[in-house]
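Hi C.,

You asked whether I'd gotten around to modeling the 137-residue construct. I have! Everything is below, sequence then structure, no commentary in between.
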Amino acid sequence: MAEGVRLTPDGQRALREAEQLCWRMNVAIEAPEHLLAGALLVLGEGGSVGLPDRARIEEALLLVHGAGAEPLREQVMPSPGARAALNHAVARLREMGGSAFGARDLALGVIDSGEVNPLFYRGLGIERDELFRLIGR
């Protein structure tokens, strides 16, 4: 994390969930959609209303990234887009005067970054702006 920003427990869970989604789908490159998916799963578990469920999130990931046939043997690596989306999310938090980076900050920042493939939103069954609004409450 950037200097002066600490990762909250739900932020840690969101990043861990994003990586686990890659492992389950045998995809070695973590994309912005994985980061957003991890954050959505954690937010949904936390009681946020109106968010897509796990099945819908995983279907959207499969739509955009597919699944590998062979189990992964090496670690998952972030794509340049995932790095850019995460950096944008942290910068957004800092600009707003925050220092605790959680799942909500990750989701809003990744959406705001513009790095998410529009097909992912279509797979989720929700427009980008509506998802941003739901999470931002």
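If it helps when you're writing up: The longest strand covers residues 6-7.

Thanks,
B.
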